Amino acid sequence: MEQVKNKILNYLNKLKPGGMQATLMVTFSVISVLIMLILGVVLYLRFSSVSRNEIVETTRKLMEQSGENMEDYLVRMRQISDAVYYNVVKESDFSSQENRIQRGMNLIYEANQDNLKSIAIYNNYGSLMAAEPVASQKEDPNVTKQGWYQSAVEEMENMHFSTPHIQNLFDDGTMGYYWVISLSRAVELTERGDSRTGVLLVDMDYSSISRMMDQINTTNSGQYFYLCDSNGEIIYHPRQVQISDGIFQENNQTAGDYKEGIYDETFQGEHRKVLVNSISYTGWKLVGVIPYSTFTHGMLNVRYFIMMLILLMGMMLAFVNRMVSVWISSPLLRLNDSVKSYEAGEKPRIYIGGSQEIRHLGDSIQRSYEQIDDLMKEIVLEQNERRKSELDALQSQINPHFLYNTLESITWMIEGEKNDEAAFMITQLAKFFRISLSKGRTVISVRDELQHARSYMNIQKVRYKNAFAVVFDVEEAACACCIVKLVLQPILENAISYGVSAMDEGGEIRIIGRKRDGKILLTVRDNGIGMTREEAEDVLTDNTRVPKRGSGVGLINVNNRIQLLFGKEYGLKVESEPDEGTSVSIVIPAVPYEEENRKILEKGYLFGKDLIKNIEDAGGEDEKQ
User: Fold this and answer.
1) pTM of the prediction?
2) Exposed/middle/buried for 416, CB within 10 Å: 0-12, 13-18, 19+?
3) Are 483 and 501 in contact, with CB atoms under 8 Å apart?
4) How far apart are CA 390 and CA 404, in angstroms?
5) Tell me, which fold does domain 217-298 have in CATH?
6) Which residue has the higher pLDDT, 260 or 501?
7) Considering the domain 398-624, what is its CATH architecture?
8) Spatial CB neighbours of 6, under 8 Å, sequence gap ≥ 6
9) Residue 117: pLDDT above 60?
């Protein structure tokens, strides 16, 4: 105690008017600056994260909408191909109905000419059978060597979309070159009654897809979108000319291998986010590229705002710090002067003023030196006695073997960095011992006993690596009744150790609770190795000469505790069959869990038997009615 007194006096002696105020001012200022910097960084990171997520989400939604528009366009192209095949080609004979075929193709072409360049039908030799619009075919176009024709022949069951290319089949007299995307498919042609294989070609105007892509490539923040097939071949790119000239490069081959989703990648030293959206029917991929510079570009205004906010807060805090330091230091300095006078041999009254804490400090220095030593001794003694009592109460309730195994499992999980499982085990262990203690009570509710059992089984499932399943099937009516605490755990322990732990897989422990005829029936049933009927009948005997399967002592203890509280007509019932499993049932009266009933049962069987009899009689009368 003398050391505490000397430290207080030495500290007060070191205080100087200028030094204290300066120290407080500097300390508050440093803390304020650190808080503002941390707050600024946190705000910036938060705004940056929100802004980045918003940009990515906006881009994703834009890509989804564009993908849907493109899929609608491609569906229309497929419908055109289906219309030509099923409505014109398949129902006609080329040897006698050539005019009918031509008229049908002309009608379909005229209805969709804004999106089409041509429709053509070729036989299996690559000879032109019909085309729309009517135009002369160029000399020797070598149709059978072209990619769209070969794809249709090799995979006859599918439709095939090509990459953009110049239409080089027909000469329409305009000397123009058209960029198209070819939709080809194998079809069945009829000529003079004979069927043969052919290829239907629908050339789509590439400008339609180009316009769709141009509509979403309008931002000037650095992000852009392009279209490629599953092999990475570019179908559309806003900088396609620069790519063709070798001025610009794109990571399209890698994007072709991406599945639909969001990716982070670094290409040519640039860190960027890549969003991939698959286009149905084609295997095409709509790719959105967002350079990280786009994110930082949108955060400039936020940076300026945070800097101005920190500057204003700094100016305000500097003034507040000055006022606070003066307010705190003034009473302390006056207290310091009075203590110095006291040390000099004078007997002045110790200054008591300022805030409540400083007044309390002055008052304590004046009158509590002698009291503190005795008070501390009493507190230490009281704390030691209380801790001893708590430890004794805990020690009397726990199962050391179970506790040690559980703690070793938790240690193993922490060392293996399985923190979530370790936290789960600790939580379940806490619930387990909370019910075990139960404020010193012997009688608890069935609901609390089931919670205790759940915590125990959750711990054991982790220890046994989920080698078995646990099912609770308890009626709500049974949960609101009284029971002796810690009766399910020994039964569950037996079910694990001598029932399902030896099984390789498929082990199951089922806890069933029912309220019937004024009684509560709690059954623990496992599908383990089981035992003979003779062994099951001897489990609850107190004959140590009879060999028992499992912990017979634990079951006898449970049975005796139940009978001591409720009577000899209640207790445990064991049923088992070899290789089929064991069933242990707890039979107790259905006493509602109320504080008055609990206190009566806590007093013992002599007090509780009248309560149980009254409840049983009431239950019998209800059944008669």
Assistant:
1) 0.44
2) exposed
3) no
4) 19
5) Beta-Lactamase (3.30.450)
6) 260
7) 2-Layer Sandwich (3.30)
8) none
9) yes
